[in-house]
C-alpha cells in the first residue's frame, strides 16, 4: 500500500518540476542558514561558519540529483528529455525533417489505405447496433447433391427453418438472399439490386424505419399481400425522396409490391453490394419467376445470421447449432455437414473471404514493399546525419553518457519522425481511400453499384497506423542506433569527427547495403508494374479478330418477363425483322452469348476418329452471325436458314478447334458425338477470333446454330451491325411496339472490351502509382547517399584535382561508386521478380510473365533515373576548388 | 574514523522517525543534529543525505511537512510524524530489536540451557 502511494506521488512528481526544484533549493538554503547560525554562536567567523556548514552538508548538487531521482521516475523523465531534445533538433533541421516525415507519411499512408479497405470488408461488423453479438452461419455439406444460387456455404430454406426453430441458445435467426436483381418499372425500366429477407431480418439487426414500418411476421404469412421495404439511398435516388411512397405499389419484375417503409439512413444492407430493396423471402417465386428455391431442401441460396442471446457465448451457440446439423444429417443418409459460426462481417462466408483476403494479400505485400523502401530511405538519411553528428555523439559519450542512453535518444528521434509521418499518412488515407475505391469501382464493367460496407477509417485503422508507425520507426532507427553503440571514441575525438581520406567511412557499407536493398525492392515493383502496363497496352491494342465498333448488342430477360419458348422466338424474330430493314443496318444476328461478354457455355464431345471425350466451348448463333461480326468462313460453308428450320445437326469449327481435334484430316465432314447420342457434323471452318476471352483461350471452340427456347439461357441477345444510333433507336422502337414493359439493355458491343480493360486499368494504375512512389523513394535514397558522399570527400577530390585529375575523371569516380549498389540491387531484383511474376499472368493478356521488354527496359530505365539522381549531387564535386579544399586541412 | 559507522538507508529512516516521535515537529537540520548527538558523535554522516530519506518517508505517508519559523526566526520546513508514521515506528523498532537480538546470539555465543 505504502509503495503504491509512493509511486503515485512519484508519478505526479513529474509535474510541477520547477516548483519542486525551487522548494528544494529553499529547504537546503534554510538548512545551511540554521547550521551557520549555530556555528557563529559557537564563535566561528561567518566565512568559517559557512565553510563548515557546507562541508558537513556534503555535495549539494549530488544530494539534489539523488533527491530528484527519488522524486520522479528517472526513465520517464529521460523519455521526456529525449523527446524535447529530439523535437528541438528536428525543428532545427527542417529540410531533413520534412523529407523524413513525407517519406513515412507516403509509406504508412498507402498501407493504412489498403488496410482500411480490407478492414471494411473482412474485419468490420455490420453497421447496426451491438453488432459484436451478431454471427453468420456457414456450412460445408458432403455426401449430398446440392444446387447453388450464390455460394455453396449458403443454406436452403428448410435448413434455415430447422436452425431457427430448434436452437435453444443461439437466439433468433434470420436469413436473406443477397444479390436479387430486379427490374423496377418507373417511367423507364431500371435494373436494381436488392435482397430477399426473412421477416425478422430488420428485427434481428435492430434496424429502424425512417418512414413507414419494416417487415412483421404477417408479411411472410401465406397469402399475404406482396410487400417491399426500400433502402434510404434508393428512396432518395430513385423515388426523389417522395414522402408519400409508403402505401403505394411499385412493380418489380412485373409483379406489384406495396411499399411498407423505408429503412433508416446509413443502412445499406448486409451484403458486399448495397441493397436497394428487400422483399419477404417467402415471395421468392413472385420476384424470381420460373425458379423455385423455397421448397428445394438442397438449394444453397440463403445466408443465415443471428444475434446471440444475452448470456450465451459463441461456443455455446456453435455447440447448440451443431446438434441441429447432426439431426439434419440423420434424415439424409450419407450427408455430412460441417457447420461454422463466423462473426458477422461483409465477407463472412469462406468463399467470399478467401477472394478478398487473397487479392488483399497481394496488394498488402506490394504496399509493404513500398514501406520497406521508405524505411531503408529513412535509415540511410539517419546514418548520414549521424555521421554529421559524430562529434556531438562522441562528446556525449566522453562525458559519461552510456551507449544505451545514446541509442535510446536516437531511437526517440526516429520514433518521433515516424509518428508524425504516420499521423500525416493516416489523414491522407482517411481522405483518399473512398475516392480510390470509387475510382476502382467506376473502372469495372457492369451496372453501377455502391459498396454495402462503409469504407472509411475507424479506430482499428488508427491502431493499425499507430502500430505501423512505431514498427517503422524502430526498424528504420535500428541501424543508426546500432551504429551509435559502436562509435569509436578516441579517433573520433582526435580528428574532430571528420575522416578525410578514408576511402570508406565506417558506416559506408551499411549505407550501400541499404541502397542495394531499396533498389532491389524497387526493381521488383517496377518490373511488375511494367508487365501490367504492357498487359494493359496489349488489351487496348489487341485486334479481337471480329467487328466490334459497328455492332450494337441488345439483351432481354424474356424468361423473367414470362415468355415461353414460342413467344420468345416470335418476339426475337419480330425485333430482328423490324430492325433489319432500317437504312444503315446491314445485319441482325441472334446469339446465345455475346462475344467477350464473360459468359461461357461448355459441352463435352467425342470427336470422330478419336475415343477420348474433349471439353469444347461452344456458342449458339444464327446464320447471319458470321456476316454481322465479319468472321470469314475459310472452308466449307456457314449455316443456312433451312438447317435452322429443319434442326439439322451441324456445327462450324474454328481453325484452332479443327487443328486440335483433327490434326491431320480435313475437318469438313468430321463429326462430334454428344454423350447423349446426337452427332454434329462439321460443315465449315471459321477464322479464329478472340470471341471467348482476351487473348483467346486454347480450348477448342465451335459454333452451333441457335435453337428456339428461353429455358437454357439467362438472357436473350441480339447483335445488330450498322450505324449505332440508328440501331439503338430502332431496337428501342421495335421493343416498345411489341412489349412496352420489357426491360431492355442496349449497349455498344465494344463495351464488352471493358470487361477486360477495366480490371487491367485498375491493376496497372495501382501498380504504376505504387512503383512510381517506390522509384521516387529509391531516388531520394540514391541522391542522399551521393550528396553526402561528395560532401565528405571534398578534401580527397581537391587533392586529386590538384594532382591533375580532370572534372571528367572526378565525375567518373563519383558516379561509378554511386552506381555500384544500384547495379547490385537491380541484379538482385530482376531474378526475384522473375520468380514471382507468374501470379500476374491473368492480367497480362498474352504478354509473357517473363516479357523481355519489361525485364530489360524497366531496369535500364531505373538505372538511368538513378544515374540522374546521382549526377545532380555529383556536380558539386566538380565545383570543388583544390586550393580551398587543401587549405581547410 | 574507525569507530564511526556508515549509515544506511533503512536505519536512517528509523532514526528520523524515532527522533520525530521523541521531539515532535522538527526541521531537517534539527533532526540531523539530534541524530548526531544521540549517537554521541560516533555517527559521522553528511547532513544532506537526510533529505532524500525524508522525501521517501513523506511519499510513503509516514511524515508530513510544512513551512514554519524556527526558534531563532529562520524560515524552515518542519516535519512531523503522521499516524501512519507512528505505527511504522513501533513496527520497525520491534523488527529491529528482533534482528539485533538474533545477531546478539551470533556475536556473543553463550551456551543456552535448552
Structure explained in plain terms:
The complex is a heterodimer of chains A (889) and B (114). By secondary structure, chain A is α+β, with helices and mostly antiparallel strands. Chain A is 53% helix and 16% strand. Chain A contains 27 helices and 23 strands. Chain A starts with a helix and ends with a helix. In chain B, helix 1 packs across helix 2 (28-38), helix 1 (9-23) crosses helix 3 (50-60) and helix 1 crosses helix 4 (83-107). With 114 residues, chain B is α+β, with helices and mostly antiparallel strands. Chain B has helices spanning 9-23, 28-38, 50-60, 83-107; strands spanning 26-27, 63-69, 75-81. At the A-B interface, helix 1, helix 2 and helix 4 of A face helix 2, helix 3 and strand 3 of B.
Please give a handful of descriptors for the protein shown.
heterodimer, A: 889 residues, alpha+beta, six-stranded mixed barrel, 27 helices, B: 114 residues, three-stranded antiparallel β-sheet, globular, disordered N terminus
Strand content of chain A: 15-25%
SS elements, strand count of chain B: 3
**Spatial ordering of strands, largest sheet of chain A:** 3-4-9-6-8-7
Q: Report the sheet with the most strands of chain A, covering strand number, pairing sense and barrel closure.
A: 6 strands, mixed, barrel
- Helix percent band of chain A: 40-55%
Over all CA atoms, what is the radius of gyration of chain A? 38 Å
The total of beta strands of chain A comes to 23
Mean pLDDT across residues of chain A:
84
Biggest sheet of chain B: strands side by side, in what order? 1-3-2
Uncertain parts of chain A: 496-504
Mean of the pLDDT scores of chain B? Answer: 81
Largest sheet: number of strands, sense, barrel closure of chain B: 3 strands, antiparallel
